Amino acid sequence: MTRVHNFNPGPSALPLPALERAQREMLDFEGSGMGIMEHSHRGKVYEAVHDEALSLVRSLMGVPDTHDILFLQGGATQQFAQVPMNLRADDQSADYIIGGVWGQKAVKEAKHGGLARVAHSTEDHGKFFRVSRNDELDLDPNAAFLHMTSNNTVMGTQVFDFPEPSSVPLVCDMSSDILSRKFDVSRFGLIYAGAQKNMGPSGVTVVVIEKTLVEKGRRDIPFFFQYRTQAAEKSLANTCPTFSIYMLRNVLSWLAEQGGVDGIAKTNEQKAALLYGILEERSDLFTLPVEKSSRSLMNVVWQLPTPEQDAACVAAATARGLVGLKGHRLAGGLRASLYNAVSLESVAALCEFLRAYRG
Ligand code: PMP
Question: 157 in ligand 1 pocket by Cβ < 6 Å?
């Protein structure tokens, strides 16, 4: 077996021990004579996995008792719709900070069937190569919530200084940097993230929501889309994505063994510092389009002088077992996604390739 160095933007690399554990348990989970996928979501065997996954999210993220944790389906994209459906009254608007295409999609969904406004956008000729500063935000004190994206997967920017709206709940799409660094969950009304970057395979979306927001949520929308429906039943109101949640359990137990978020945050900083360091050193060939203070530790974007040279660099890297480096069509260039499961060794291999690359 040859495993490549996987820099995919998501779905993306998973920790080998988490995959090997699934391989070992695939046919016979803990002596039950069947795999976890074959168990009832209402049975005791699966329930123990589900509870462990919930408690790992709680302990690793430091989720206080004031917040519920939900395992939902429909991806982060469903949350673009479900958040305003639940949290915004008919006569209320919601504020959005736009730092990239995912924020654009979120505000577009919010404007469909209600009021939403852009509190600030860093768009510049279709690109977003920095994040908003808090002093640039034009906030509506009566907004239902303020929505932001903590890490812009496509352009490679990341927010390091979270806004603090005084009376308005902060809602954050953390799809591409959840569990990669420490932050204070109690400052957020709602956090959501698709699992398929830092937490496991696609199929499950983690929502961390303040209990008061669950209670205050609208009751005139379909029951199934009300957060209270899943909050009341530990996300087992219907058949949950059992295998995705099981894999999330495996990935998060691995993360706990790496020293939790504090441990992985150090490695993530080292990985990003290595790669940005080489790219700066090779400024003869590579350009870093993102403003330095907004550079993402999760998605590193760089460019060569022409799109043809970008493509040739991707092809040469692929031939060396360094895969998933093609940039998003909206950003151009190359992108290396350095999520939690991407090892320092993989980043070192990429750096070695880039140091010697002649174009
Ligand atoms: N938000 C961000 C920041 C993302 O990176 C992505 C996916 N790349 C999404 C939302 C959409 O997620 P999903 O495909 O789970 O709906």
Answer: no
At the top level of CATH, which class does the domain 17-257 belong to?
alpha beta
Question: Where is 120: in which H helix or E strand?
Answer: strand 115-121
The tens digit of pLDDT for each residue in 51-83 reads 999 999 999 999 999 999 999 999 999 999 999
Q: Nearest CA to 84 among 62, 116, 117, 54?
A: 116
Q: Distance between CA atoms of 9 and 326, rounded to whole angstroms? A: 9
- Give me the catalytic one of 68, 173, 177, 310: 173
Intervals of CATH 3.40.640.10 along the chain: 17-257
The rounded Å distance from CA 157 to ligand 1 centre is: 14
Q: Is the CB of 80 under 6 A from ligand 1?
A: no
Q: Which of 275, 291, 283 is nearest to 325 (CA)?
A: 275
For the domain with range 260-356, which CATH number is right: 1.10.260.40, 3.30.565.10, 3.40.190.10, 3.90.1150.10? 3.90.1150.10
